[in-house]
Design goal:
Elements lengths: L1 E5 L4 H6 L5 H17 L7 E6 H4 L10 E13 L2 E12 L3 E5 L6 H9 L6 E6 L3 E4 L12 H6 L7 H14 L15 H13 L5 E5 L7 H16 L4 E6 L10 E6 L2 E6 L7 H7 L10
Helix pairs in contact: 6-7, 7-8
The structure holds adenosine-5'-triphosphate.
GO biological process, one term: transmembrane transport
GO molecular function: ATP binding; ATP hydrolysis activity
Pfam family, one: ABC_tran
């Protein structure tokens, strides 16, 4: 079933329609979903056609303090290969929760189910809305050819001058203001992930899911990126689900979930190393660009 949805079109969006891959389409739909759920008014001109599955991602009722609610979720890519085998957990609003699991344990599949791009075969999922997903591959997170377009598409109802000011401010928070007019294909993997997070945060998601976002980074960039995200979301009451297979990343989380062969095998305190807090304190944004 296809349903039409109404938005104000932009030439950039129309320009990239023919270049969609499946991932790019998911990313673009995600951005529009975020824009729509954050907007107070809508102006009418048809742009994006949503499938029934995509429409299921629009807001559903959730308890006030709930960030993520997952109840007995099962999923299989084929009849003989179940991937998620009865996963249940809840994440309260504002918690920075990490999911740790080895390769093939079902982490990415769980992310897609939480995000709504896959439907569970059994059980159900509720998440505070809107939800943003950062994919493992940096190229899957950026839709537009230039950095400034990635940002300005996330800012609505502002003058061009104000849009540029907000976008530059957001880029400055992730240390990349000098790349404002750069082409996306010239950025490193780490830079792409920073651009993706900074632009998505402009849309104020209630839940941010990051699926192994540091996979393309070296050890020191990984740590910087983790500190940065933790700092950016810390005052926003944003629920964060950070998925990783790296044991050392857990010390930044409020809570750790471990997944093995599609089952949750641990839910509790992460192990912290003593230097984590001091590293976190070193990263403090000059200005809080997410504040209204
Ligand atoms: N699109 C797909 N079609 C068929 N099988 C898939 C698909 N995506 C994942 N799988 C299978 O599902 C299982 C879990 O994969 P998933 O990507 O969720 O694991 P993961 O924990 O994220 O792994 P990694 O850490 O390597 O990314 C694997 O056996 C994988 O082969």
């Amino acid at each position: 079933m296809k349903v039409r949805c109404t938005f104000q079109p932009t030439p950039l969006v129309i320009g990239c329609v023919s270049a969609w891959t499946r991932r790019k389409r998911v990313t673009l739909v995600e951005r529009f979903r975020l824009i729509v759920t954050n907007r107070k008014t809508t102006s009418v001109s048809t742009l994006v056609v949503f499938s029934h599955r995509e429409l299921l991602q629009f807001p559903t009722k959730i308890e006030k303090e709930e960030g993520i609610f997952v109840e007995d979720v099962h999923f299989a890519w084929s009849k003989t290969r179940p991937v998620l085998k009865g996963i249940s957990f809840q994440v309260p609003r504002g918690q920075f929760c990490m999911i740790l699991g080895s390769n093939g344990s079902g982490k990415s599949t769980l992310c897609e189910v939480l995000y709504g791009s896959l439907l569970p075969h059994q059980g159900f999922v509720r998440t505070a809305q809107p939800v943003a997903l950062i994919h493992q591959s940096p190229d899957d997170n950026l839709v537009f050819p230039t950095v400034d377009a990635e940002f300005t598409c996330c800012i609505r109802n502002e003058t061009e001058q104000k849009k540029e000011e907000l976008a530059r401010n957001a880029l400055r928070q992730v240390g990349l203001e000098h790349l404002f007019y750069s082409r996306v294909d010239g950025l490193s993997g780490g830079e792409k992930q920073r651009v993706a997070v900074a632009s998505l945060l402009l849309l104020s998601p209630a839940v941010l899911i990051l699926d192994e976002p540091t996979a393309s980074m070296d050890a020191s960039s990984r740590e910087d990126f983790l500190c940065l995200v933790k700092t950016l979301v810390s005052k926003k009451n944003m629920t964060v689900l950070w998925v990783t297979h790296l044991l050392e990343e857990q010390s930044y989380a409020d809570r750790l979930l471990r997944i093995q062969s599609g089952k949750m095998i641990y839910d509790g305190e992460p192990k912290r190393d003593t230097t984590t807090l001091s590293k976190l304190n070193k990263v403090s944004p000059e200005e809080d660009y997410l504040s209204p």
